[in-house]
């Protein structure tokens, strides 16, 4: 009898632990604002995502939209992008997201390697219930590619949001 009770208890413990962990449910990703952004970076380079330029940045404050627009007239060190709120449950849980930036022809040609990039895929995270910024900095002539730029945000293979920007000189 003791052996049966012990086996039953050992089988029940994992079930109870699983019951206490709520399943993650992603309802939607709402684009809150799009346009020109303010991004103030620290002098260190310790966090963020690699992109075709190979840059990594650490931020003093959360990047945020300062001028709402979908048409971006590029000036020196122009930053553009969007702020988005992730809806779902449980609030506060981080989920992995995939961010895809697509660039118009002829693409971004790296000045040193000569590599032409039409698309960058970046792995990131977004807190459920939180607002995050997704952005691009055009800081060099080679990154200034006029035309329609697109950013898409995915949860696995499910596209949560898509936003297009028209870049002009």
Brief descriptors of the model:
four-stranded antiparallel beta sheet, globular, Immunoglobulin-like, five-stranded mixed beta sheet, 1 helix, 11 strands, mainly beta
Task: Briefly say what this structure is.
With 169 residues, the chain is mostly beta strands.
Layout: helices, strands, pairs:
Blueprint: H1 2-20, E1 25-38, E2 64-68, E3 71-73, E4 78-89, E5 94-102, E6 108-109, E7 116-117, E8 119-127, E9 131-138, E10 147-155, E11 158-168
Parallel strand pairs: 3-11
Antiparallel strand pairs: 1-2, 1-4, 4-9, 5-8, 5-10, 6-7, 10-11
Question: What does this molecule look like?
Answer:
It is a single chain. With 169 residues, the protein is mainly β. Residues 4-10 and 43-57 have low confidence and may be disordered. It has one domain (24-168): Immunoglobulin-like. The termini are far apart. The protein contains one helix and eleven strands, in the order H-E-E-E-E-E-E-E-E-E-E-E. The protein has a five-stranded mixed β-sheet, with no helix packed on it. It has a four-stranded antiparallel β-sheet with strand order 2-1-4-9, with no helix packed on it. A two-stranded antiparallel sheet has the order 6-7.
Number of strands: 11
Reading off the top of the CATH hierarchy, the class is best stated as Mainly Beta
* Class from helix and strand fractions: mainly beta
Number of domains: 1
Weakly predicted, low-confidence segments: 4-10, 43-57
**Can you tell me the CATH architecture?**
Sandwich
Would you tell me the overall average pLDDT? 83
Rg: 21 Å
The helix content, as a percent range, equals 10-25%
CATH topology: Immunoglobulin-like
Order of helices and strands: HEEEEEEEEEEE
Roughly how many Å apart are the termini?
A: 81 Å
Sheet having the most strands:
5 strands, mixed
Oligomer: single chain
Query: How does the overall form come out from the CA principal axes?
Result: globular
- Number of alpha- plus pi-helical segments: 1
Strand order of the largest sheet: 3-11-10-5-8
What fraction of the residues are assigned to beta strands by DSSP?
over 45%
């Amino acid at each position: 009898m003791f052996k049966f009770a012990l086996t039953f208890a050992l089988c029940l413990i994992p079930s109870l632990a699983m019951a206490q962990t709520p399943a993650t449910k992603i309802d939607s990703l709402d684009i809150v604002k799009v346009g020109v952004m303010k991004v103030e970076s620290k002098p260190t380079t310790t966090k963020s995502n690699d992109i075709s330029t190979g840059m990594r940045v650490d931020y003093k404050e959360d990047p945020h939209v300062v001028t709402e627009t979908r048409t971006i007239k590029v000036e020196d060190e122009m930053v553009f992008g969007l702020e988005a709120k992730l809806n779902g449950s449980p609030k506060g849980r981080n989920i992995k997201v995939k961010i895809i930036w697509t660039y118009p022809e002829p693409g971004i040609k790296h000045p040193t390697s000569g590599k032409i990039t039409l698309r960058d895929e970046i792995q990131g995270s977004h807190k459920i219930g939180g607002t995050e910024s997704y952005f691009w900095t055009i800081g060099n002539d080679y990154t200034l590619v006029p035309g329609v730029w697109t950013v898409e945000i995915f949860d696995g293979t499910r596209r949560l949001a898509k936003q297009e920007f028209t870049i002009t000189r």
